[in-house]
Amino acid sequence: MTTHESETDSHSESTPQTWSGDVVVVGAGTAGCYTAATVAKAGYDVAVVERKSEAEAGHIACGDALKGADAFPEAIPKERLEPAFTNTGVDHGRFEIPQEDTVLEIPVPGELAVIDRWEYGRRIIEATEDAGADFYYDVVVQDVLQDDDGTVTGVKGTRRGGVHEFDADVVVDAAGALSILQDKTDFSNATFDTNVSYSQFCSAYREIVEVPEEVEWDDALVFKPTERAAGYLWYFPRTSTEINAGLGFQMNEEPMELVDDLKQDLRQREEFEGGEVTDKLGAALPTRRPYDSATAPGYMAVGDAAAHVNPTTGGGIAGAAYAGKYAAEAAIDAIEAGDVSEAMLWEYNERVMDHYGARYAALDVYNILSTAVDVDDLMGLLASLPGEKLAEALYGGSTEFSLQLKVVTALKSFGYWSNIWEFYKTKQQADRLLEHYENYPSSPDALADWQTQRDDIMDDVYEVTGADPKY
Q: What's the predicted TM-score (pTM) here?
């Protein structure tokens, strides 16, 4: 049962407050809202703690492209979100490769849409409130509460100088990339992945640009490399005249220099002449494999906070939604059993790895390869590969070539055969890794042995690619 002490004015006063209930979720993004909505619909008490104001909540930096638009977990069904879908006519990726003076049109499997992310954010918050979750805005979480045995029991934050404490059986960390909760939690008695470095993340910056004339590519997601291998540009059409223009760059690059790359490219594109910027926003984004384990006693991390993002495309909305569903269901089972141990929550890790985590880990191998090859050689190689096979590699983690395609590719890729060979050897390692992740352990006790075998495969990845170790 939920209790509120000294609560006034919709949780906005500086008077100390305490919330006590079943589950507390930190962060009102996709993963947080799907967690909370699933918990609330099952009849349990859940609080969502959000650092932004109620007016700003849901305003998150995003490319606005949504893959898997045809399927959402039942707690917040698709029809609640559809008003935020501004372009459902996109059906492929358009890769601009200036080095090769070519454009690749690459089919993208599954249903695509471009959304208004802020409107989408409002919609998921509204649906979560309708499900029965309590929202606490303007609360900056600063600490995690733990028992002597390491079990997480809540979080503590401040608003306007007042202390706000949230006590719960299960804490769900949906606070985004490089979450402060993970800095504050003692994981010494847990398998939670702490092999995390800022260099495994990228910064993303985007502008919403209104252009005077309709763009010709309003059915495509446009990608373009920057002059440095660590960066990429995107142009995603919310509508034919409203474009999400942005870039991502590894955190070991100078951010302002790459933002200048975006501005320079915008100036060079005729379709943006006379355009007006209506919104600017930036954020951090994981470009790494999913956390080996996102559980600890009384604690789970979801979405960006557990690197549940396709590391080659940055897409994370659908994965975050399902992570929220799986975490909520694990939390409910644990509360019902009166046991919030890591072993009881472990099924959450298994379901994430089975759904998409294994595939994302295999895709990260290609990110590792990209750090060790010349950007011009990489672009030339991509230009020589069949579009449908690139799509399979980008979204599926693996692909196969028929004999005829091998011959055609060999002819087109003359001059890049050494890179083709390197790509082939890398693919073999990615396939090995995918198979290993498909045998993810069924209990935390078996994780260490599984990690040792995985790390042996990763040693071979680094040897084949010539890349510096990432983890």
A: 0.89
